[in-house]
Structure formats: C-alpha cells, structure tokens
C-alpha cells in the first residue's frame, strides 16, 4: 500500500496507543479513532515496508463497542484516546494489555497469569474524575483570549472550558479568567513570540474537602488589576487558594520554580482514606482520588502488614503510600528523588501525627544500595533486611541496581505499583528469576478514556 491509498478494513485489534488495527491484503494498518469491531474506510497517510498508518475516513459498520463520546472534542483533543470505546471494553483492553506484556516481555506462563490475575478495578462513573487540570491559554483568530486543551501531538489550543474528565467548577473559573482578560485587554502568552502574560491556569479540587486552588502561571512579574480577578474568583464556593507562579522561560515546562499567594493560603487539603495531605501548586498528587484510594488499599492488602514490619516505599513522591502503610507497620522508609516532594512527605507525616515514617532524598537505586552496604559494614557483615518493599516507579521502571539490592535484602513480599505494563513485565522477570513468585496482579483504572494503565502486583519470596 502507498500513501493516499484507500481501503475498507475490519478493525480486529487495539494498539498500545488506543488506535485500531486492521489488515488490508495482509498489510497492517494502524488507524487512530477506529474502534475494535468497526468496519471502516481508511486512507493511508504513512506507508512503511510492513505496516502503515491510516486515517479513519468513514465508519461503514460501527463496532458494538463504539459509543457516542461525551465530549465533542474527543477526537481532536490529545487528552483522551479511547472515549469512543465503551467503558467496559476499555477495561478489557487494559487487562489484556497487562496480560500481554506479562506473557511477551515477562515470559510468564498463561496458566500462572490466570492464577495471579484479579479482575480490573474500574470506576462507577468514569468521567469527572480528575482533581487537577492545567489549561493553556492562547488567542483565537479574532484576537480573543481562549483556553482549553492541546490537540494531539501539537500545541494548537482547542477552545474548551468544559473537559469531561475534569470537575464542573473548572468551567466557572476559566470563564471568569477569560472575562477578566478581555475586560483589561490582558494577553495570553504566545509560545512563538514569547510575548503575552497568561500562560496556564492550574486548578485543583479536593474531592473530600471541596477546597479549590487556582494558580495562574504568568510570563511577567504580576497580574494587573489582580484585585478584580480575586473578587470574582472568591465568589466561587470552596475557593481556598489563589496563587501566581512566574515562568518567563521559553520552555514547555508549565510551572515556574515557585509561587506566590495572592489570596487565601498557598495550599489546599485533601484526604485519601484517613490520611490528610496538604497540596501546594507544585506538589505531585495523584489525579484520580477515587481510584487512588482503591489502589492504596490494595497496596496495604498486598503488603499484609501485622504491625511489626520494616517497610520501604521506593519512589514515594509526597509519601502518599508510605503514610498509608505507616498506619500498620513498625517503620516505613520512603525514598524519592525530588527534594520538594520529600519536604511535603515530612510535612504530611507531621500533620497526621505519624512518627514511624522516615524519608530520604535521592535516587532509589543509590539510596537503597547505599543503606544496604553501610548497614552490612556496621553490623559485621549481617545483611540489612526488610519485610516488605513497595516500588512505584515512573514509566521507565526500576533500575537493575535497585532490583539487585531488593533481591539481596530478601523481603518476604514485594508490592510493585506500575504505570507502564511493559517495564513492569521486564522488572518482574528479573525478580521472579531471583527467588520471587508472582502471586497477585490487578489493573486499577486510574485514567478512564485514556490508554494509561496502572497495575499493582504482589510478589512473594519462594
Ligand atoms: N508513590 C507516589 C509517587 C509515584 S510517581 C504516589 O503514589 O503518589 C513516581 C515518583 O518517582 C515521582 O515522584 C518521581 O519524582 C520519583 N522518581 C523518579 N525517578 C526516581 C528515582 N530514580 N529514584 C527515586 N525516585 C524517583
């Protein structure tokens, strides 16, 4: 097949990015926005030797899994990839993704996976789940300020203040900001020229406390007539924190390095389970609080703590999992690379009166081996031990040096929380080749309508 060729194909599979996959005379085509089960007319936009990419021209026979998207921008917007797939089918897709990776990359036998795998945990209402949104600002053809989301793989802004994954109050806040900008002729930042003031609005909402934070990221030192904006924003019930973060760099990084309070306090508070967290504009915090609570409860269940254990929580962020585990362990050590996050973790421990959690700043693959060696030296060659080790790495997974140290410390259990099933499978292969057995695996859908897939696993020492 060649560029611009058209074909009618059956979509028989789903790619890692949520795209539909079908064959035209044995030639594989990846089709964005096509749903598994569709019969569709497609047009080749890029042809490689053995496969190509095609555009969905027309759905001839819709898949039984195809649904009307809730958001009219679902196809253009880069935020959602699979909103046109029924939610039940999305969950099957994610479960199969985990299973496929465990088989192909992890080398696990299908029977073993059958035994370990538990049903995926989905959401009752898979919309409006995000507690955080970062809206970029731009200018439309008429010169009006607009805000919304980036179109897939570009920085073109789709004007939309009403994202289906976010909370309804986002719209009220954004409309206030846009009206304020119009009134005082305040310009949106323009990436091409580096001019204009308003770059992004970060909005956070505490699902349990109903507290709201607005942080405006600006290309300048202050917002003119800010009092007027504050007056309007504070009419919104729950408004707790209004801040600005200065970012004058020509960069894709959204936030500046610091922030200043314009009104109220510099943070909002929220709960996961019984643990209270203070969240500042710069803190990392899980975006789906409903599913996070289920995920952390599972982590606690998989760790199966009795109260006398020593636990390590590697890649601990602001100590979310650590503090959850500390409720049931003798001692929890958290390790995280970002100093600010460790600062938050210590604060969060204090707010909750948790005294058995200790935090270290540094790379997990340096801190844990360092601790292990020093301990062994100080204790006449007796090895440092842990009862449970939890890891929750970024997408690239764990460093091999870290996995080696985990094996040496020989914890009874390892709980692996992963946001990428491919690197998860790779790391599990190493652990299971070195004395561990995969006991339980479960996907928890933290990001409905997207292809992102969170998994939690329990490994037990043989
Ligand atoms: N467990 C936390 C955060 C998980 S996200 C939670 O549930 O909220 C992964 C975290 O790993 C991020 O906070 C990131 O800053 C941190 N990180 C990335 N590379 C790291 C490394 N090499 N060592 C330690 N932490 C790292």
TrEMBL record:
Active site: 419, 419 (nucleophile)
GO MF annotations in UniProt: rRNA (uridine-C5-)-methyltransferase activity
Residue sites binding S-adenosyl-L-methionine per the record: 286, 315, 336, 392
The keyword Transcription belongs to this UniProt entry's keyword annotation: no
InterPro entries attached to this UniProt entry: MeTrfase_TrmA_AS (IPR030390), NA-bd_OB-fold (IPR012340), SAM-dependent_MTases_sf (IPR029063), TRAM_dom (IPR002792), U5_MeTrfase_fam (IPR010280)
Family membership: Belongs to the class I-like SAM-binding methyltransferase superfamily. RNA M5U methyltransferase family.
Protein's GO biological process: rRNA base methylation
Principal EC category: transferase
Keywords, sorted A to Z: Methyltransferase, S-adenosyl-L-methionine, Transferase
Pfam families xref list: TRAM, tRNA_U5-meth_tr
Protein name according to UniProt: 23S rRNA (Uracil(1939)-C(5))-methyltransferase RlmD
All copies of domain TRAM, residue ranges: 1-58
Enzyme nomenclature, EC number: 2.1.1.190
